[in-house]
Hints:
The structure holds two protein chains of two kinds. Chain A is an alpha+beta fold. Chain A has helices spanning 2-7, 9-31, 36-69, 71-91, 93-99, 103-113, 310-324, 372-378, and strands at residues 117-126, 134-137, 150-153, 156-164, 169-173, 180-185, 191-195, 202-205, 218-221, 233-242, 247-253, 262-268. In chain A, a hairpin with a 5-residue loop joins strand 6 and strand 7 (191-195). By secondary structure, chain B is an all-alpha fold. Chain B has helices spanning 3-9, 23-39, 52-64, 67-83, 91-107, 115-139, 149-176. The A-B interface holds A 9-10, 13-14, 17-18, 21-22, 24-26, 28-29, 34-35, 38-39, 41-43, 46, 49-50, 53-54, 123-130, 132, 134, 136, 162, 170, 172, 176-178, 198 and B 31, 34-35, 37-39, 41-42, 48-49, 51, 53, 67-68, 71-72, 75, 79-94, 97-98, 101, 105, 130, 140-141, 143, 145, 155.
Amino acid sequence: xxxxxxxxxxxxxxxxxxxxxxxxxxxxxxxxxxxxxxxxxxxxxxxxxxxxxxxxxxxxxxxxxxxxxxxxxxxxxxxxxxxxxxxxxxxxxxxxxxxxxxxxxxxxxxxxxxxxxxxxxxxxxxxxxxxxxxxxxxxxxxxxxxxxxxxxxxxxxxxxxxxxxxxxxxxxxxxxxxxxxxxxxxxxxxxxxxxxxxxxxxxxxxxxxxxxxxxxxxxxxxxxxxxxxxxxxxxxxxxxxxxxxxxxxxxxxxxxxxxxxxxxxxxxxxxxxxxxxxxxxxxxxxxxxxxxxxxxxxxxxxxxxxxxxxxxxxxxxxxxxxxxxxxxxxxxxxxxxxxxxxxxxxxxxxxxxxxxxxxxxxxxxxxxxxxxxxxxxxxxxxxxxxxxxxxxxxxxxxxxx
Amino acid sequence: xxxxxxxxxxxxxxxxxxxxxxxxxxxxxxxxxxxxxxxxxxxxxxxxxxxxxxxxxxxxxxxxxxxxxxxxxxxxxxxxxxxxxxxxxxxxxxxxxxxxxxxxxxxxxxxxxxxxxxxxxxxxxxxxxxxxxxxxxxxxxxxxxxxxxxxxxxxxxxxxxxxxxxxxxxxxxxxxx
Lengths: 401, 177
């Protein structure tokens, strides 16, 4: 035995080292337990250094850039940007609001408005490994963070806390191949399971081929997984195709667009309803009108409900034909004489009769898209039967009258 | 066997016990490498594929030329990496233990000061490291991960290219001690 150990000393040590680590892995896999103490030591040793480096980088690098390296160019650029920003403010208030929206401010606003109790954190480092999909966040158990908590941004979900250490937390991103979460589609209310793929897009699995999911449709958290509260945006469908049993749905996560730097850890989640309306722009909300603003159409502007399309003009022509022949649509009994539609003018090329309602008369408005809300708003006052046109109420006087 | 191959195969000079790192550097260099791996790729994304802890292991094992310190050093660096990853302890530990052992064994036969040998060995050990880690993921953890051969070969070449100046710097540091 001694001869063997001395003769093969190197190999013996190697085998012992490998066997010890194999046993360690086997113990962890078998019991599904970690060795928390070592990880706590390592993370507690590393994360303060990382946080310090980040602090130094943020201040030192920015200082060097601003005052030494690009002093002239940067100040000139700042002036130009300021001038450009002022022009934008004059031209388009809303566009400027979106362009100058600060991420941290948006995060705090979201944090204040969200019913869930959250704590803001900053990503300070990645996990080790080339294909690592985990990050360290500078909030740990001392801030109330625990394993299994959801990590979100105002734009959507980012991941979940897998380990909470005193000074930092390890967060598994939704792109990690082992990540999963329950999701729900906005339009068709289809339930599925979000799975990371190791790259930018995620897969939604377990959706039957018979279910309907459209490209561009939004998915929200369903709350089924007991980690993410219901109603947080997940992403937009990029591609859908039928698989063997389940659909293959790929979505582009909205929470990590442009890389997540500042995040919110949900300490106490509150379920919310999935919004019924489609999002106009991911992550932004249309502000309400300021106090005192009216919804009246300004003078000279094309009015809502003006005869902009062929269908509108055709509708008015038929209504006029009915009025000329003293026919009220919807009142004739079966077998009674219908109106004579053979003498009505065509829509294209032939203008409507002179007795047409004011909306289609002398002033030929340019075709304008009809706001859905304006069209719907006129419906409650419409006491005519379905299919009968009613001239839209005029709120503006044409300039040439 | 040509004169050049004989030159490559001769035992490397300078493997005396006096030409070693101080303990502070022995611990500090791998920690810096791990910190680099967790911090720098946040800002320079493609540097995430630079496996500095592996290169440090290879350099240490090649320069020491002793299998036991080589494998223990590899195991230490691997376990530090494991502690900052999501995988169970021992995954990187086993791979780097083997890399340390084999690198130290190989160094007894090759002139590891030669840049060509350094390049080839760095490339080989990167490939071995990535492949064996993939094998462990599949065999021990049962994860259905894929092995991207083309990407691994490409990053192996990049890591080997980085290894040349890095080893020079580490040699200088060692001599300064």
